[in-house]
Structure formats: structure tokens, C-alpha cells
Design brief:
Layout (H helix, E strand, L loop, with lengths): L2 E4 L1 E4 L2 E8 L16 H28 L3 H14 L2 H12 L4 H17 L4 H21 L11 E5 L4 H5 L6 E6 L7 H9 L3 E3 L4 H5 L4 E5 L4 E4 L3 H22 L16 E5 L5 H6 L5 E5 L13 H15 L5 E4 L34 H18 L4 E4 L5 H20 L9 E6 L2 H5 L1 H5 L4 E4 L1 H8 L18 H17 L3 E3 L7 H9 L4 E4 L1 H12 L3 H13 L3 H15 L15
Helix pairs in contact: 1-2, 1-3, 1-5, 2-5, 3-4, 4-5, 11-12, 12-13, 18-19, 18-20, 18-21, 20-21
Bound molecules: phosphoenolpyruvate (PEP) and magnesium ion (MG).
């Protein structure tokens, strides 16, 4: 039986495919194997490597049949890595020496990944991540753990999905994502956008609707979900895809030009990335730098934190990709909230979004942040660029002072080794907690820039968990309460003469980008896939129109009115909305 349901659009694009239901299996962590003898350990390592290779090869073949040769090639290469003698024999050697087999596989893979990461060749260095992915797969085979992944490329339907699971899914397996829970600013939705996976979230009754269904189609731009679509539905979707393709090509044609309004008000557009591998896509999309490098993703898909060496290599790759003239803002790891890292052993908390998250980790895990900062200094020294750093979740003056203190301590440690070390680190604060916004004039005197995280700012200003689908009506960052807070931050920054960027999802939404530019925000940073849409939106308006829009937005009393004003301006300029970030609309 076919049916339609409406959710909230979260990542653009249309996906059609078999339904695969994800069911969580409880907490992860590093399994430890009880093995009777060293001989048994060796046998199990070899079998697990073979099993992982066979799984990967089978996936590669299926992707090939589905005419996805690029994705198939990646998986076929990973299949070979799983049985790479250099890794398997080293793991066996370590296990014979008495190491737990799981630890042995991870240690052997890590050693191999580090050799790759240290290579000057960017392509080979990028393979380090693949080696770690493969090791996780071998460990799962070793511990009899199920791979919570579809066997064939599918549209995933779930209540909610941990971002780490999507991050470690082989490319091409998830055609689309439909969630009963979540919101467009939950990290899993942000990740889906950066992976180009069409997604719809907060879909009421999703799991009941897909029970027994074979196929699902979803439109990540309208938020519509079709369960077991008919031939006419599929034809209509294909036609829509053609129309949108033409619109997107028109927006992409502006890529060579600096982003600006008709009358020349420049608004640099930067990219949000989570790995140096994203730099290629960002540069292709015309990004003028990186406004947010979400470094916590370097801590996922593994069983121990990345070493300082590894981090140097990752940060250096990103810096070198953009060169000395374009900044790469590295955000210290935002661990906590909905991004938990099991191996760090952090305490469970009743309210993780209000708990020991991000810069607050400095209290118990100071070395984690110091390692990151040393790696940033060293990477910039090696790449010959000025480093840029910012801290998430800053709430107090003391937090800002703590960041500056850690930064200086890390520099002294690097300089003492005689390594190349730049003279300064451009230092910023993420403004995403209301207290930081209130303290903006004082905080602005301590640092070089602000970057507003509208995802968290909205969650904290409106006291609405960003991942809770029941709170959709409170989760629109265009709410005047959020916009008035942004205006206060811009005013505070202006007093000290420092620039303000926005790197939350609102910056990637054309309507949001217009309002933010009108409020005096200096730079916008968004997923590479959103840059064409916001560049096209800005190119169609004047600075005067933007300021008038911002004034109306500040005087409004709800988000719907603000969106209507912004869409009125967008619509007056052009027919149809450009492809961009999600329309962060309230729940239908
Ligand atoms: C934000 O909160 O807006 C932000 C950019 O940070 P994150 O989404 O990673 O929490
Ligand atoms: Mg945030």
C-alpha cells in the first residue's frame, strides 16, 4: 500500500531505494575477547580479516552492479586492506606476544595508518582513514559483532541514528535517510548534508508507515516521503530532479565570483568541514576558506584518541589545501552532547547538552585539548600559515581566558622542542551559549573573532533540545529571539572591532543567509553543498534591501513571519528557491 508522509527537510536531494530499518543495539566500546590460547587468537584474527575482506568485496560488487563504480572501487581497495599482510601479520605477532586480539588488530592498523598519514602524498595520506575504518570492521568480525549496516544500498529508516554510525558507513550504502526523530540541526542531519545523503527528519509515524514496505522515496527538499511509490510518483520525482538540476547549474555558474550583493557588499563564504578530505569538495564549491573544522570527527571511528602526530598531519593537510591566503578555522573538539566517544570514558550525564561538553572537558581532560593545540601550532609551522582556532561552548570570561592560557601553554611546549612555530594564533570564540552572547562586549576584547553557532544558540535560547522532534516549533533559528541575540553579539563585536562569522546551519539556508548579512554578520560558513544557493541569493539583492529585511526580522515576533519576509525578498528576485541548506521550517 503506498502512502505519503511529511517530515522536515534536512538534506537536499531525492532518494529512492529499498527500505532498511536501523535498530540500535546498545552502547559500543572496545570489545575484549576471551581466547583460550595464542594459537586461537591467531586463527581468529586471520578469519576475521578474511571475513571483513569478503564483506567489503561483496559490497563492492553490489555497488558495481548498481552502476556506482567510484564507490565500488573504494570498497574493493578496503577489501584488500583488510587482508594486507603488513597489518594482519603485525596483529598476529602482537597477539602471539600476549596482546588481546582486538587490541592487536587496532594497534597494527594504527601503526600502518600513521605511516600513511605521515606521507607527503595527500592521496596516500588520506588512506589512513580507510585503514582505520577497515580495522573497525575487522574488530567487529572478530568479536562476532553485527555490522549495523544495510547489505545493499538502501534508504535507511530509523527512530534516530548516531552520527558516528553514519560517519563510518561505507560510501554508497545509504541512499537516503528518514528519521522519525531528530531535527535539521541534529548532528546526524548536518553529517548527512555534508555526505550528500538526501534526508528527512521528524517524520511522524515513520516506522509504522514503513513496516512491511519494500521501497521508499524521499525528497530532502520538500520533506515528503513516499512509501512504496507508484510509477506515476516515480515519474514526477524524476521530472522534479530535472527542474532542480537546471536551477542548481544556474547557481553553480556563479562559483568563480566572490560572494557579494548587487551593490558590492562582500560576504565571504567559507565551508564547514569535518576532515581534510572535505577540502576538495569545499574548494570546488568556491569556498573562500574553512569557517568551521569540526575536529571531533577525527575522534570517531576509532578506539583511542588520535595521536598528536596524526592530528598534525590532518590539520596540515587542511591548511595546505587552502594555502596561506585562506584561513582554516580549527574548532577544538566539541565532544559531548550528541557526540559521545565511548573510549574516552566520560561520565554518563542526565543532560549531556547541558553537561561536560566541549571546552568544559578542559577540567578533566586538559591534555586532550592541549594535544590538539600543540598539533595546530605544529601543523601551521610546517605548512607556513597562520593558525586559526576557536573553542565551542564558551559560556564565561573564564572559559575564554582558559582557551588563551591553553593556547599559550601549547605554544611554549612546541617552541621548546625547536619545531617551527608561528608567532601568533588567530583565536576565536563560538558564541552559542546565551551567557556568551550577553558578555559579547567583554569577550570581544579577549579574542580576534566570534563565530556564532546558531544550532546550539537556538537550542539554548529557546530551551529546546536540538535533537528532539517534538520541539520542532521551537527549533527555527530564524526566531526573532535568536536574531536579536545575534544582533547583540554583532554590536558587542563592533565595539571591539572584531569580525563576526556564523557557522551554524542558518548560514547555509538562503533565507537565513540574507537575514544574517542584513544584521551585519561579516562571514558565513556552511556545508559546501549550500554555498551555491547562498551565493545566488546574495547576488540577487542589495545591501539596503538586506538591512531593511533585518530590521523587519528584528521587529517580528515569530520565526514564520521572518521566513515569510526573507522568502518574499528571495521570491521577488527569482522564481523558485535555490538549492541550499535545509529550509528549517516548523513542523507541519
Ligand atoms: C552550532 O552549534 O551552530 C555549531 C556550528 O556547532 P555544532 O553544530 O557542531 O554544535
Ligand atoms: Mg555547536
Amino acid at each position: 500500500m503506498s502512502g505519503r508522509i511529511a517530515g522536515i527537510p534536512a538534506a537536499p536531494g531525492i532518494a529512492v531505494g529499498p527500505v532498511w530499518r536501523y535498530r540500535p543495539r546498545g552502547a559500543g566500546g572496545v570489545p575484549v575477547l576471551a581466547v583460550a590460547s595464542r594459537g586461537e587468537a591467531e586463527l581468529r584474527i586471520r578469519r576475521a580479516a578474511d571475513a571483513a575482506a569478503a564483506q567489503l568485496q561483496a559490497l563492492a560488487e553490489r555497488l558495481c552492479e548498481m552502476n556506482r563504480p567510484g564507490d565500488a572501487e573504494i570498497l574493493a581497495a578496503q577489501a584488500l586492506m583488510a587482508i594486507d599482510p603488513a597489518i594482519v601479520e603485525e596483529a598476529v605477532r602482537l597477539a602471539r606476544g600476549g596482546m588481546d586480539p582486538v587490541e592487536a588488530v587496532l594497534a597494527a592498523a594504527e601503526a600502518s595508518a600513521q605511516v600513511l598519514a605521515a606521507l607527503d602524498d595527500a592521496l596516500l595520506a588520506a588512506r589512513a582513514g580507510d585503514v582505520r575504518d577497515v580495522a573497525v570492521r575487522v574488530v567487529r568480525a572478530l568479536s562476532g559483532g553485527h555490522l549495523d549496516l544495510p547489505a545493499v544500498p538502501s534508504v535507511v529508516a530509523a527512530d534516530d541514528l548516531p552520527p558516528s554510525l553514519l560517519a563510518e558507513t561505507p560510501p554508497g550504502l545509504v541512499l537516503g535517510l528518514a528519521l522519525a526523530g531528530g531535527s535539521p540541526t541534529a548532528h546526524v542531519a548536518i553529517l548527512a548534508r555534508s555526505l550528500g545523503i538526501p534526508s528527512v527528519v521528524a517524520v511522524p509515524g515513520l516506522l509504522d508507515a514503513v513496516r512491511g514496505a519494500a521501497t521508499i522515496a524521499l525528497d530532502g527538499e520538500s520533506g515528503e516521503i513516499l512509501v512504496d511509490p507508484g510509477a506515476a510518483d516515480l515519474r514526477a520525482l524524476a521530472e522534479l530532479q530535472v527542474v532542480r538540476g537546471a536551477r542548481d547549474r544556474a547557481a553553480a555558474a556563479l562559483r568563480g565570483r566572490p560572494a557579494a550583493t548587487i551593490d558590492g557588499q562582500r560576504i565571504p563564504l567559507l565551508a564547514n568541514i569535518r576532515s581534510p578530505d572535505d577540502a576538495v569538495r569545499a574548494l570546488e564549491a568556491g569556498a573562500e576558506g574553512v569557517g568551521l573544522f569540526r575536529t571531533e570527527y577525527l575522534f570517531l571511528r576509532r578506539q583511542a584518541p588520535p595521536s598528536e602526530e596524526e592530528q598534525v598531519s590532518e590539520y596540515r593537510r587542511a591548511m595546505e589545501a587552502f594555502g596561506p591566503a585562506r584561513s582554516v578555522v580549527i574548532r577544538l573538539a566539541d565532544i559531548g552532547g550528541d557526540k559521545s566517544i565511548p573510549y574516552l570514558g566520560l561520565r554518563e550525564e542526565p543532560n549531556p547538552f547541558l553537561g561536560v561538553r566541549a571546552i568544559r572537558l578542559a577540567q578533566d581532560s586538559r591534555e586532550l585539548l592541549l594535544t590538539q593545540l600543540r598539533a595546530i601550532w605544529r601543523a601551521a609551522g610546517e605548512a607556513g600559515v597562520t593558525p586559526h582556532v576557536m573553542a565551542p561552548m564558551v559560556a564565561t570570561i573564564a572559559d575564554a581566558q582558559l582557551l588563551c592560557g591553553l593556547r599559550d601553554e601549547a605554544r611554549s611546549a612546541v617552541a621548546a622542542t625547536g619545531a617551527a612555530c608561528p608567532g601568533r594564533m588567530v583565536t576565536g570564540l563560538m558564541i552559542e551559549v546565551p551567557s556568551a552572547a550577553i558578555l559579547a562586549p567583554e569577550l570581544a576584547r579577549l579574542v580576534d573573532f566570534f563565530s556564532i553557532g546558531t544550532n546550539d544558540l537556538t537550542q539554548y535560547v529557546l530551551a529546546a533540545d536540538r535533537g528532539n522532534p517534538s520541539l520542532g516549533r521551537y527549533q527555527d533559528a530564524l526566531h526573532p529571539a535568536v536574531l536579536r541575540t545575534v544582533a547583540a553579539v554583532v554590536a558587542g563585536a563592533d565595539q571591539a572591532g572584531i569580525p563576526v562569522a556564523v557557522c551554524g546551519e542558518l548560514a547555509g539556508d538562503p533565507a537565513g543567509a540574507l537575514v544574517l548579512a542584513g544584521l551585519g554578520v561579516d562571514e558565513l560558513s556552511a556545508d559546501a553543498g549550500s554555498l551555491d544557493g547562498i551565493r545566488a541569493a546574495l547576488a540577487g539583492v542589495t545591501g539596503t534591501e538586506l538591512r531593511a529585511l533585518a530590521a523587519k526580522a528584528l521587529a517580528a515576533t515569530d520565526a514564520e513571519a521572518v521566513r515569510a519576509y526573507a522568502n518574499e525578498l528571495l521570491g521577488a528576485k527569482r522564481e523558485g528557491r535555490p538549492r541550499g541548506g535545509p529550509a528549517i521550517t516548523v513542523r507541519r
